[in-house]
Design goal:
This protein has 356 residues and is α/β, with parallel strands linked by helices. It contains eleven helices and 13 strands. Strand 9, helix 5 and strand 10 form a beta-alpha-beta unit.
Length: 356
């Protein structure tokens, strides 16, 4: 299989470092395991580990390979094992805040062309959550497509209303509806898949991502778990991996997300809430938070029913959350940096004492 068939486009060709290719081969990360990585290139598949230098120089999870990354690797043992020396520049990335209280980036996948945001049409239907996913996707420089799952649960008129509701808020986003039960709409999704392009499926647990992937693959390749009676699904996907479809398109399946925290998402917010950002230019104060200030053009638009109150509240909430998390993250990085300097100073002083 050629690198081009694995998604190595002209953009990546322009990023190639000739000095690296004289010693190492280019490969794509197709899976991230607990203790190693799976690589694929024109020589086949191989398990791999990162070099000590790469590991030592890493300052955050973003410095480690992710599914979809292109890397320079040294192949050993008749190409059955490899050492990853460097990660190539990323065209796009899907990342979020790690779950829980820890303020850190979690890199989910890299070099994605299109993200399928899967939203179910049952009790889990949530526009505000959908906006959160769009912020994450837009921030990562990925083209979003919304897939409305379980269309068999509602009437055609209700489906039309849901699509109109989403398009009112997000007029430029492509939407497709489907059912894993009746197979309705699956052909429309297959028509979106282009050979050589990389896609990912994201959404809450139990929305039908794994079942959809099985349907696209044409068989029960991945285990599917039942949804609880309260419509809360359990994680079926336990690791991130890149799967190549029969038509040459590639899909990265990701575990369902119960918690979706964002930070450092200024461009993602601007793209997702474009009408609010445009109105904000007319606010009286340049640092307006669009919460309580007099002369706020955004609040006036909410009052005039130009912007839905719930959409405005979600924007303000995510904006504050992002700013708080980013500040906490930068403070932590500074503390880590200061601690590192202290350790280096101690080592130098301790070394001098030993010499005496």
């Amino acid at each position: 299989m050629s690198l081009q068939e694995l998604g190595f486009s002209d953009w990546f060709m322009d990023q190639v470092d000739p000095a690296q290719t004289t010693e190492y081969k280019i490969a794509r990360v197709i899976a991230v395991n607990k203790d190693n990585y799976a690589l694929r290139n024109n020589a086949g598949d191989a398990l791999a580990e990162v070099t000590g230098k790469l590991m030592y120089g890493a300052t955050s999870p973003l410095d480690y390979p992710a599914v979809g990354d292109w890397v320079y690797a040294q192949y050993l043992d008749e190409n059955s094992f490899a050492i990853i020396h460097q990660i190539m520049p990323r065209k796009s990335s899907l990342q979020r805040k790690t779950a829980g209280k820890k303020i850190e980036f979690q890199l989910i996948a890299a070099n994605i062309d299109t993200a399928f945001i899967v939203q179910s049409l049952d009790a889990n239907y949530n526009l505000r959550r959908l906006e959160r996913y769009l912020v994450m996707v837009n921030q990562g420089n990925i083209y979003p497509v919304i897939l409305l799952c379980k269309s068999d649960l509602i009437s055609a008129d209700e489906l039309e209303q849901k699509i109109a509701q989403i398009h009112k808020l997000m007029p430029d986003v492509k939407i497709a509806a489907f059912s894993n039960i009746s197979d309705s709409g699956l052909d429309d999704i297959k028509a979106l898949l282009i050979s050589g392009n990389t896609y990912c499926m994201i959404g809450s647990s139990g929305v039908g991502k794994t079942t959809l992937l099985n349907n696209l693959l044409g068989g029960e390749m991945f285990e599917v778990q039942a949804v609880d009676k309260d419509d809360k699904g359990r994680h079926t996907t336990t690791r991130r991996q890149l799967i190549r479809l029969e038509n040459g398109a590639m899909i990265i399946d990701t575990p369902g997300m119960r918690e979706l925290g964002n930070f450092a998402v200024d461009s993602g917010l601007s793209d997702t809430f474009a009408e609010i950002v445009e109105l904000a230019v007319n606010c009286r104060y340049a640092d307006c938070t669009h919460s309580l200030e007099e002369g706020c053009a955004v609040l006036q638009a909410v009052k005039d029913k130009v912007i839905e109150p719930e959409r405005h509240e979600n924007y303000v909430k995510m904006n504050k959350e992002s700013a708080f998390n980013e500040m906490s993250y930068l403070e932590k990085r500074q503390k880590d940096k200061d601690f590192g300097k202290m350790i280096q100073t101690y080592k130098k002083q301790f070394g001098m004492r030993k010499k005496r």
